[in-house]
């Protein structure tokens, strides 16, 4: 100990009963522990005061840099202010990973990011990282700051979600320019992202980032919330009700938020669709019944066709209060198709209508009792003779009782088909010209398919 350090000498001798001789300190273990504890508390208190003072300085700077927004504030200038305040480069992107704006004064220093940003998009590895986080629900539900790791980049990325009315519309990304991330970055980035989202709302060129009033009304309706008379009037105008329309549900090849948003934006280009929006992981759309066939034709030949995994539709309806029920019908069709092992691009309502009725029946044994006895006779015969009578009957009904079409569908000669049909009538006693019996047979086969 330095002889001149009078304060430390007095502190140790007076407060901790220490003895100092020839620059050596003699102190009991208990007193030493007390001294160390007190010094630690003192250092922590001083650090807290220092941090508090620094935080107040940042708060003052923040308030002077970001005053209350006004409608015509230049968005790019707000981005530059953000960059200057954080002393790092920043990039603002939408849900499709397209660059909305980025800082120029403090340049993006990562070579790969600099190249991609100028082209208007994020790097592939950033997109991949985000797509991995979304399905696993690793993203915060608020604007809270979070880190994204990109293996090919040696710069840290701190991100914050941009929200508008609780709807996710994009990201604010801070690149650390190899200078590291400071505590105030994590503290203020969420607050700045809220200002950026609000500022975007004032600019017409960014209008497609935000949900429309009709989408908000429909979302509330599907969530089971009542809507006001004025909202019902607006929705009726948007959907051209009352009128014969259908509700469509589309699923993309991937179910991430970005892919669903991309699918929605592409479907918005089809003139036949009255309104398109995202609800959960589905893209919901409405179409007039008379426009349905042309919509299907255009979708089939479009580039978007390969991006659609599958789709289904509701029954025809005419009024707003039918929408929640029709949505449930369409959504349940996906579940039924999965249960049946069906895998097709489109699941028409008419093809699944009877399966919906079966799905509402909870007594499986009761369903089995409705199966036509002829079906069991044919099943037993086919098992014993390695025959194909039941498949032949099914094809015959599917082909509208056309012998020509059935033979073609089964790749058999007309005489072979005639023999099989005759054998069916001999074994079961059914009359294939009796439409009511054919209808019952068709339903019976559907019941067995449903029961698995």
Q: Which outline best applies?
A: elongated
Rg, please?
35 Å
- What's the helix count? 18
Q: Which spans have pLDDT < 50 for at least 5 consecutive residues?
A: none
* CATH first level of the largest domain: Alpha Beta
Give the strand order, joined by hyphens, for the main sheet: 4-3-7-6-5
Assembly level: single chain
What does this structure look like?
This protein is of the alpha+beta class and 452 residues long. The chain has 4 domains: 6-62; 75-209, 2-Layer Sandwich (Beta-Lactamase); 236-360, Alpha-Beta Plaits; 364-451, PucR C-terminal helix-turn-helix domain (Arc Repressor Mutant, subunit A), CATH 1.10.10. 53% of the residues lie in helices and 15% in strands. It contains 18 helices and 12 strands. The strands form 3 sheets. Strands 4-3-7-6-5 form a 5-stranded antiparallel beta sheet. A hairpin with a 2-residue loop joins strand 9 (273-279) and strand 10. Helix 11 crosses helix 12 (349-360) and helix 15 (389-398) crosses helix 17 (414-428). The longest helix has 37 residues, at 29-65. The mean pLDDT is 86.
Write the layout of secondary structure elements.
Layout (H helix, E strand, L loop, with lengths): L5 H10 L3 E3 L2 E3 L2 H37 L9 H12 L2 E6 L4 E4 L8 H9 L4 H10 L12 E3 L8 E8 L2 E9 L7 H19 L11 H10 L6 H11 L5 E8 L4 H11 L5 E7 L2 E7 L3 H10 L6 E6 L9 H18 L5 E2 L1 H12 L3 H6 L3 H13 L3 H10 L4 H8 L3 H15 L6 H17 L1
Parallel strand pairs: 11-12
Antiparallel strand pairs: 1-2, 3-4, 3-7, 5-6, 6-7, 8-10, 8-11, 9-10
């Amino acid at each position: 100990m330095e002889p001149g350090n009078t304060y430390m000498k007095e502190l140790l001798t007076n407060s901790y009963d220490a003895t100092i001789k020839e620059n050596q300190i003699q102190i009991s273990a208990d007193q030493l522990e007390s001294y160390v504890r007190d010094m630690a508390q003192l250092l922590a208190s001083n650090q807290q005061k220092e941090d508090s003072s620094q935080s107040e300085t940042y708060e003052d700077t923040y308030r002077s840099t970001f005053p209350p927004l006004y409608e015509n504030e230049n968005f790019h200038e707000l981005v530059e202010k953000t960059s200057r305040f954080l002393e790092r480069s920043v990039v603002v992107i939408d849900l499709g990973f397209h660059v909305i704006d980025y800082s120029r004064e403090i340049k993006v220093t990562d070579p790969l990011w600099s190249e991609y940003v100028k082209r208007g998009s994020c790097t592939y590895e950033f997109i991949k990282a985000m797509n991995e986080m979304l399905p696993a629900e690793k993203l915060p539900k608020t604007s809270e700051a979070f880190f994204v790791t990109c293996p090919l980049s040696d710069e840290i990325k701190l991100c914050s979600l941009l929200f508008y009315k609780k709807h996710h519309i994009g990201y604010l990304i801070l690149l650390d320019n190899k200078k590291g991330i400071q505590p105030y970055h994590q503290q203020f980035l969420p607050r700045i992202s809220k200002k950026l989202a609000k500022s975007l709302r004032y600019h017409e060129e960014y209008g497609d980032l935000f949900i429309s009033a009709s989408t908000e009304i429909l979302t509330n309706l599907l969530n089971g919330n009542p809507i006001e008379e004025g909202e019902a009037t607006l929705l009726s105008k948007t959907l051209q009700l009352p009128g014969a329309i259908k509700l469509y549900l589309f699923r993309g090849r991937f179910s991430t938020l970005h892919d669903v948003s991309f699918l929605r934006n592409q479907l918005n280009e089809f003139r036949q669709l009255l309104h398109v929006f995202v609800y959960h992981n589905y893209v919901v759309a409405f179409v007039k019944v008379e426009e349905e066939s042309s919509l299907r034709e255009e979708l089939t030949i479009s580039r978007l066709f390969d991006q659609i995994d599958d789709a289904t539709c509701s029954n025809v309806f005419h009024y707003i209060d039918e929408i929640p029920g029709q949505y449930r019908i369409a959504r349940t069709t996906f579940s039924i198709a999965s249960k049946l092992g069906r895998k097709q691009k489109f699941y028409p309502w008419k093809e699944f209508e009877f399966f919906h009725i079966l799905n509402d029946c909870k007594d499986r044994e009761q369903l089995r009792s409705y199966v036509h006895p002829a079906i069991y006779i044919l099943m037993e015969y086919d098992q014993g003779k390695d025959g194909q009578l039941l498949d032949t009957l099914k094809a015959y009904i599917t082909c509208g009782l056309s012998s020509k079409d059935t033979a073609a569908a089964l790749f058999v000669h007309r005489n072979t088909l005639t023999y099989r049909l005759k054998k069916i009538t001999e074994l079961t006693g059914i009359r294939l010209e009796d439409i009511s019996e054919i209808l019952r047979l068709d339903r019976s086969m559907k019941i067995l398919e449903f029961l698995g």
